[in-house]
Amino acid sequence: MEYQNPQPSAGLERELATSQVPASQLAAGQLAASQAPVPGHGRTVIAETAVAKVAGIAARAVPGVYSLGSVPSRALGAIRDAVGSSDHAAGVRAEVGETQVAVDISLVASYGTPLHSLADQVRASVYRAVEELVGLQVIEVNVEITDVYVAPPPKSAAPAGTEREALL
After folding, report:
1. 46 backbone dihedrals φ, ψ, rounded to 5°
2. Residue closest to 16 by CA, chosen among 26, 28, 5
3. Cα(70)–Cα(157) distance, rounded to whole angstroms?
């Protein structure tokens, strides 16, 4: 479902038409914060994909998030990265209503990061980003941690004397 601005009611249009706002302020776009913009100039539609991308970028910015998505979606993402494309919405699903949104995020955490704390930080980051950038009320952010990434041990340089020589 996509978010659409609700159509203004006739009462609101009448109220704005009879308001005491000077024409110079209307022309300059200096309406007071308590007054609504003039309706009827079009509508705004925000797709679920756009909300998912905003949420995905916000989640990736949290320290301790290794990647978003499950194992199959990460494999597909690796192929996508190899050809120079990226999907910021991988591992994120958004359900958009008229004024509210719900977000589901699946992620892989880095080993050593407290998982409950990570989920709380991701949730807070997504709430903040979606409400500020998209302008919709976030009703819930569900976080599923599907895996923990363990970094491979660093390769140590072998001493020169223990290397085997190739036979000719």
Report:
1. -115, 115
2. 26
3. 34
**Residue pLDDT, tens place only, 100-142:** 999 999 999 999 999 999 999 999 999 999 999 999 999 999 9
Helix (H/G/I), strand (E/B), else coil: 16: helix
Element (H, E) at 107: strand 100-110
63-102 pLDDT, tens digit each: 999 999 865 554 545 555 555 555 567 789 999 998 999 9
Whether the CA torsion 113, 118, 122, 128 is positive or negative: it is negative
Q: Rounded to an integer, what distance in angstroms lies between the CA atom of residue 158 and that of residue 132? A: 52
CA angle 68, 70, 71 (to 5 degrees): 115
CA distance 9 to 1: 23
For the chain, how many helices (H) and strands (E)? 5, 6
Q: CA 139 to CA 16: how far, in whole Å?
A: 31
